[in-house]
Design a protein that fits this description.
The chain is built from 21 helices and 30 strands. The termini are far apart. It has a domain of about 170 residues: Rossmann fold. The N terminus is likely disordered. The protein has about 675 residues and is of the alpha/beta class. Strand 4 and strand 5 form a beta hairpin. The structure holds adenosine-5'-monophosphate-propyl ester. The site of adenosine-5'-monophosphate-propyl ester (PRX) has 22 residues, from helix 12, strand 20, strand 24 and strand 25.
Length: about 675
């Protein structure tokens, strides 16, 4: 390998006392650095000039990106209106249509025959859509939704698998100015209903189901269950036929996609929407029991997603094949599947299923088949592949890969190096392994915020490193003072950015309280971070009651509420315990009610299933431990830190502030039984 591994220092104090010990240990010893190859740097689409431009005049930099990357039906007057913080307005007075930018204009520019989406179904079926074809599908869907009475500003709930109809639905909504609210297919009927109610959705778009590990997996029954109780706002349910399984049908309400969209007229004129027109709501877990409806608007969101997609992945749309493995139910699937790749006129791969179906080489087979050149995935997937062994990817030709992305959770240096050597260097056969871009961002930030630029930055295994051009990220101490290099603290954003959330749906106060009250005039991200001696940023995980399981955000409080809603449970405490593959795993400690019978494993299964029903399979605790008591301070606060020690098999830390110091002993004894 021709890369130079230069020395750098990465020393810092721990930012938080929340059990990131192991990750931090690794970081403290990490000193490798990989500069871009001369060839990569020479051909890079973005160079260091963007940092300089943005530093000179941040809003002007973004205004320039907005005009370069998007076609506005009406130009904007002002880049940023920050007269009423924290409510930002970007590109005021401008009008833009997201679907026109993602589709029609490419066709008008002679790119109609370029493939927009190569879809690969789990059972092995595949279809490709050119930009011309995808444009036509979206126009039909827009006409169909309008015919069902959906108009500008109405909310549409989307409960779909990873199939092209998901992208088509999102863009059709955007086209007519309807606000989509995607609910991940792994959420339960109850979770779907509460999101439908919160957003007052008029239409639901779903499918009969999908495939999971070779078997049909249903979706429609959850929609039926969600809508079974009266009092909702849904008028119609459009159903895509995907797996052909029999479904329950509500006459008058349910409509097949084939009968409504496929038969709709293929002509539809896109009109510009105000730059600040709501584009979508996406619910995410916070520190309280109730998920927050994160609101994103149009012009700023499209600008920053398109810019970062181009700059961070070094996108050459004429030749690259981009594959983001995220589900459209998460923000990554919104920004880097449904919007940015299409706005940038790229060709992308979309895969429906699991990485091990029908065999553990499925992803690499897909990379080889479509000659994927940019792969964007999560550390949890990389660690799973590591476990399966490098012999599996070695069977495939991965030489097309030239940029690798990571997102969703901190990537440990071992996984980073494996990703580079096994995937990015095609098992060591390539002289210049693909650069890895570790991208930090959130549902709330809408687009990437911290990431190396692959043609500019010398990358470090495990660090997201540098704020992107035009992004003012900092690490501050308890008082909001910027920490010096070599120190840890809290991650904040000091200046508004184009794709920032505009609020929490229906709850402006909660928006202020959650993000803007911890530090004066700064956005508080909820993450701990440190700056190394070079000033590069290392993310250290959440500092609040939010867990990160396989890159998915879950709230401890939400799972605790689900557990105590079970008739047998008196009290529950949930912690995210370090897990080799999923980053964190949900571990629940429960106290059963006096009259409840503990049936051992059967009780544990019942409680896990109960959480699955209340929130969704993704939230099921990995372990449920029935304990006689929970450790509490004298003021009644549960000391999750001590439970985390137990869950991670560590010696229990300082327990002197417990109201009853013998409790940890009692817990340990009950678990030994
Ligand atoms: O803790 C950070 C972690 O994921 C959180 C955001 O989760 P979500 O809104 O679901 O969005 C995930 C996909 C953008 C953050 O607060 N996170 C995300 N990316 C990284 C990360 N932690 C470390 N490194 C990252 N690259």
């Amino acid at each position: 390998m021709s890369q130079d591994a230069k020395e750098s220092t990465a020393t810092a104090a721990p930012a938080t006392d929340d059990g990131n010990g192991d990750a931090l240990e690794n970081l403290l010893h990490e000193n490798r650095k990989f500069a871009p190859s001369a060839e990569f740097a020479a051909n890079a689409i973005v160079d260091a000039g963007d940092y300089a431009d943005a530093a000179q005049d941040r809003p002007a930099f973004w205004a320039n990106q907005a005009r370069t990357l998007l076609s506005w039906s009406k130009d904007f007057d002002q880049a940023l209106d920050w007269s009423n913080p924290p409510f930002a307005k970007w590109f005021t007075g401008g009008e833009v249509n997201a679907a026109y930018n993602a589709l029609d204009r490419h066709v008008e520019n002679g790119l109609g025959d370029r493939v927009a989406i190569h879809f690969e179904g789990e059972p092995g079926d595949s279809r490709s859509y050119t930009y011309a074809e995808l444009t036509e599908e979206v126009k039909k869907a827009a006409n169909a939704f309008e015919a069902l009475g959906v108009t500008k500003g109405d909310r549409v709930a989307v409960y779909l698998p990873m199939i092209p109809e998901a992208v088509i639905t999102l863009l059709a909504c955007a086209r007519i100015g309807a606000v989509h609210s995607v609910v991940f297919g792994g959420f339960s009927a109850d979770a779907l209903r509460s999101r439908i109610d919160d957003a007052e959705a008029k239409l639901v778009v779903t499918a009969d189901g999908t495939y999971r590990r070779g078997k049909p997996s249903p979706l429609k029954p959850a929609v039926d269950e969600a809508l079974a109780k009266e009092g909702h706002t849904v008028e119609n349910v459009v159903v895509v036929k995907r797996n052909g399984e029999p479904v329950n049908w509500v006459e008058g309400r349910d409509k097949w996609w084939a009968d409504t969209v496929d038969t709709a007229p293929a002509e539809h004129t896109a009109v510009g929407h105000d730059s600040e027109h709501p584009l979508f709501i996406l619910y995410t877990s916070g520190t309280t029991g109730k998920p927050k409806g994160i609101l994103h608007t149009t012009g700023g969101y499209l600008t920053q997603t398109a810019y970062t997609h181009k700059a961070v992945f070094d996108l050459h749309p004429e030749t690259d094949v981009f594959w983001c493995t995220a589900d459209v139910g998460w923000i990554t699937g919104h920004s880097y599947v449904a919007y940015a790749p299409l706005v940038n006129g790229a060709t992308q791969v979309m895969y429906e299923g699991t990485p091990d179906s029908p065999h553990q080489g499925r992803w690499w087979e897909i990379v080889e088949k479509y000659k994927v050149s940019i792969l964007y995935t999560a550390p949890t997937a990389i660690r799973t592949f590591m476990k399966w062994g490098k012999d599996i990817p070695a069977k495939y030709d991965l030489s097309s890969i030239r940029v690798l992305g990571s997102v969703g959770e901190p990537i440990n240096p071992e996984a980073w190096m494996w990703y580079r050597d096994v995937i990015g260097a095609n098992g060591g056969t390539k002289d210049n392994p693909a650069p890895i871009v570790d991208t930090w961002w959130q549902t709330e930030t809408g687009a990437q915020m911290i990431a190396p630029l692959p043609g500019v930055t010398a990358t470090k295994p495990g660090s997201a490193q540098v704020p992107l051009p035009g992004i003012a990220v900092d690490v501050v101490d308890e008082l909001g003072e910027s920490v010096p290099d070599g120190h840890g603290g809290y991650l904040v954003v000091r200046e508004p950015w184009p794709s920032m959330l505009r609020g929490i749906w229906g709850d402006p106060e909660r928006f202020k309280d959650t993000y803007w009250s911890r530090f004066e005039a700064m956005y508080f991200a909820g993450d701990g971070a440190k700056k190394d001696e070079d000033g590069d940023i290392w993310l250290l995980g959440r500092v609040d009651d939010v867990m990160n399981v396989s890159g998915h955000r879950l709230s401890t409080t939400e799972i605790e509420s689900a557990l105590v809603s079970h008739p047998s449970v008196a009290e529950a405490a949930v912690v995210g315990a370090a897990d080799e593959t999923t980053g964190q795993a949900v571990v629940a400690f429960v106290i059963l009610r006096g009259d409840a019978v503990n049936n051992g494993e059967a009780t544990v299964q019942e409680l896990r299933n109960h959480v699955g029903k209340e929130i969704g399979p993704i939230a099921k605790p990995k372990h449920v431990l029935v304990v006689p008591e929970l450790p509490k301070t004298r003021s009644g606060k549960i000391m999750r830190r001590l439970l985390k020690d137990v869950a991670e098999g560590r010696e229990v830390g300082d327990a002197t502030t417990l109201s009853d110091p013998t409790i940890m002993q009692q817990i340990a004894e009950s678990l030994r039984k």
